[in-house]
């Protein structure tokens, strides 16, 4: 059987392993948070007209919708990536093209966040606001769509 000192050592080792795993988990989670924000925004735009999405992003970022559309196309970005690049640029006092050149040179979003000591909490709050706005737009446009199809069926078209 195991001696009491062996049991005590095993308990300490297990506790140390648990603490190490928790520390690892909490250090990795913030570094990955920006990917979560990109995904959340990309998911939120599903079913919403592109012009509406650009207008909402324009409103939040204070950048003309035409500029955003051009940048999205030029760099082949999703809406989430487009927003994240602008949010990081604004937070770090750099311009959008600088952020994109760093991404295109192989840096990850996580590296940009870490290297620039970016706090993602304000960015997450804005993404949450955008999600709510886009959800309202999606509900509103689907309600309009169902009214149109109901009107057509009533008129016999």
Please give the oligomerization state of what you see: single chain
What summary fits the major beta sheet? Answer: none
Strand tally is 0
Number of domains: 1
* Tally of helical runs: 7
Mean pLDDT: 82
Radius of gyration: 23 Å
Shape verdict: elongated
> Would you list the SSEs in sequence order as H and E?
HHHHHHH
Q: Could you tell me the strand content as a percent range?
A: under 5%
Query: Which runs of at least 5 residues are low in confidence (pLDDT < 50)?
Result: 27-31
What is the helical fraction, as a range of percent? over 70%
Cα end-to-end separation? 85 Å
Structural class: mainly alpha
Structure description:
The structure is a single chain. The chain is an all-alpha fold and 157 residues long. It has one domain (29-145). Helices cover 82% and strands 0% of the residues. The chain is built from seven helices and no strands. The chain has helices at 4-44, 50-61, 65-74, 79-92, 96-104, 109-115, 121-155. Helix 1 (4-44) crosses helix 7 and helix 4 crosses helix 5. The protein is elongated. The protein starts with a helix and ends with a helix. The relative contact order is 0.12. Mean pLDDT is 82; it is low at 27-31.
